[in-house]
Design a protein that fits this description.
Blueprint (H helix, E strand, L loop, with lengths): L6 E6 L1 H4 L24 E2 L2 E2 L7 E6 L4 E5 L35 H4 L25 E5 L2 E6 L5 E3 L6 E3 L15 E3 L14 E3 L14 E3 L14 E3 L14 E3 L14 E3 L19 E3 L19 E3 L14 E3 L14 E3 L14 E3 L14 E3 L14 E3 L14 E3 L14 E3 L13 E3 L14 E3 L14 E3 L4 E2 L8 E3 L4 E2 L5 E3 L32 H4 L5 E3 L3 H9 L19 E3 L2 H10 L7 E2 L6 E2 L5 H38 L6
Parallel strand pairs: 9-10, 10-11, 11-12, 12-13, 13-14, 14-15, 15-16, 16-17, 17-18, 18-19, 19-20, 20-21, 21-22, 22-23, 23-24, 24-25, 25-26, 26-27, 27-29, 28-30, 29-31
Antiparallel strand pairs: 1-4, 2-3, 4-5, 6-7, 7-8, 32-33, 34-35
Amino acid sequence: MKHSLFIALILTVVTVLSAQSNYEIMLSRPDIDGLTGGGATDLDGIPTTGLAVGTIIIVYDGSETRIYRLTAGTDAENSPTVIRPDDFADPGNAKVWKTSISSDPDETGYSGGWALTGNTGAGNFLGSTDAQPLSIRTNNTEKTRITTKGQIETYNTGYSVFVGEGAGATDDLSDNKNVFAGYQAGNVNVGGSFNVAVGSEALLANTDGNYNIAGGYEALNKNTTGAMNIGQGWRALYNNTDGTGNIAIGNAALFNNVANSRSTAIGHSALFYADNRAVGRETFNTAVGWNALAGTSTPANNTGQYNTAIGDMAMYSNSNGYDNIGIGVSALYSNHQGYHNTAVGNEALYSNLWGFDNTAVGYNALYSDTSGQYNTAVGAFALQANIGAVYNTAIGHEALVAHYKGSSNTAIGTRSLYSDTVSGYNTALGAYALYNCVGERNSAGGYMAMMNNTTGYRNTGFGGYALSINTTGYGNTALGYDASVSSGNLHNATAIGYASRVSTNNTVTIGNINVLTANVNVDWTITSDGRFKRDIHEDVHGLDFITKLRPITYHWDMHKMGDEVYGRGNDTTMWEGKYDIERVKWTGFIAQEVERAAKECGYDFSGVDNGGKIMGLRYAQFVVPLVKAVQEQQEQIERQGDEIERLKAENQKMKRAFERLGIVIE
C-alpha cells in the first residue's frame, strides 16, 4: 500500500463512542493491509502506543480520509491496538471506521467502505443496529438525536431549532423556543423568543422581537423588536422593524410597513405601500386580495385607518381615506380621501375619490361616483353613472342607472327611475316605476307605475301601472292598479280605484266604469262658504228648464263604454260580476238632452260635465233649478191664491147685491 504524508487528528469522544455508550456509527470493516496488533503498532504511520481505548484517529492525506477507533487489543500485552484482519470474524471488533475516496482495493479493502464524498451500492448506513437512538454531539454536548421512531430532536439549544447556514447564529440559547430554518434565518436574534422563521433571511434582523412568524424569502427581514407579527410570503412585512400585531400573507404584503401595528394584509402586495412612519400607531386596516389597499406609491401619504378591503385590488388607491369597507374585485378602487363608504360587489364605488357616507352593494353599483355623499345603491349597476349627486337611494338592478346629478331621489325596484339623469326628489317603488322619468318630485309605487312619465312633475301614482299613461302632465294622482289619466298631458287630475280613468283636468274619478254601487256613511259635503264666492247672481232657471227635462229609465251598454274609455278591444280584463251593472234598470236623464234644454233656456247649467270622453251629469246640481222651480211655482200659487181671494171677494159682493134684489143664486 502506498502511504503519503498524513495529517493526524486525534479526538477522544469517550461519551459518544465508548464501550458503555448507547450510540455507534458502523460504516464498514476495512481491510487495512499490513496493520498488526501490539502496543507499538503504528496506524498509517501514527503510533498507537499510550492511546486509550475508544480513541478516534482521523487520518487525512490530501486525497482521502480514514477514521479508526482503538479497541482492546487481542495480543498477550492487552494494550490498545487496531483490529487485525484475522479479527474480523469477532463481532466485538466491529469498531474500526474507514472512509475513503480512493478506488484502490488496497486502500478501501472492503468494497462496501463508506466515503464522505459519496457512495455507491446498497446496504451501507449511518446509525445503530439495535433499538437505540442516534445522538450527535458537539463540544461533548448532545445537540441532535434521531429517535427509533425517526424523530429528529434537538437538545441544549434553549428549546430552539436552527436549520440552515447562519440560522440563529447569535441566539443566546436561553429558553427562547425559536425555530429558524433557512439561510441566515433569525441570524442576529439574541433574546427574541417564540419566533418561527422559515425561509432565506427571514427575520434576519430580529434581535428581541417575540412571537413572530415569518415564512418566505426575506419575510419580516428588517424586524428588530416588533412582536406578534405574521409574515408569510416573499418579503412579506419586509420593512417592518417594531410594528406589532400585523399579519401579512402573500408576496410583498405590507412590504413598506415600518412601525404601524394591527394591520392585516392577505394577498400578493396587499397593503404594499403601507404608511412607513417611524413612530407607529394602530391602523386597524385589513386587506385581503391581490394588491388590496396597496396605496399610493408614496407610503407616507397612506395614512388611512379603519379600512377593510376584501377582493382583488379592492381599495387599491386609498391614501388617507378612513372607515371604508370595500368587498369585491376593484371595489372602491380609486378611493383616496373618501370616508365612511361601504362598497360590496365587483367595481362597486370604483371611481370614488373623496365622496363619503356612500353605500354601494352590487356589481358596478355607484361605479362612476367621485364625490357624491349620502348615496345608497343596492343592485348591479344601481346609480352607476352618479358623479357628485347626494342623498340618492337606488335599490334594484339598474335602478337610477343613468342618474348623475340630481339629488334626493329614491328608486327601489329593477330599472326604477332608469332614464333619470339630473332630476331630483323623485320616489319610485317597483320594477320599472318612473322608468322614463326626467321630471322632478314624482312619487310612483307599483310595477311600471308612471313608467311613461317624462317631464311630468309632482305626480303621484301608486299601484301596478298607476298613471302609466301620463307623460308630461303634472299634479296628477292615481291610486289603484291601472288607475290613470286618459291622456298624457293632464294636470290636477285624480283617479282612484282599479282601472279608474280621469279624462279632464282638475277632475276626480272614483272607481272604474263597472262600479255598481258607491257607499258612504254620510253625505258628501260640498264647499259653499259665501266668503269665498263672488259675482253672485240670481239667474238660475227653474220651471222653464225643469219642464224641458225628460226623465227616463235605461240600461248601460258597458262593452261600448269600455271601448270609449280604454280604447277599442283593450278592455279585456275580466272579473266576477264585471257586467252586473248592465242588468240594473237605472233612472235618470240623458246628458245631451239636459245640455240642450239648458241651452234652449239660455241657462249655463253646471250640472252637465262634457269635458271628458264621456258626458256626465252632476245630479246634485239639479237641486238648485228644482228649488228655483218650486219657488217659481210657489209664486204662481201665491199669485193664484191672491187672485182667488180677490175673485171670492167680488163674488160675495155680487151675491149680496143679488140678495138685495131678491134674487137667490144657488
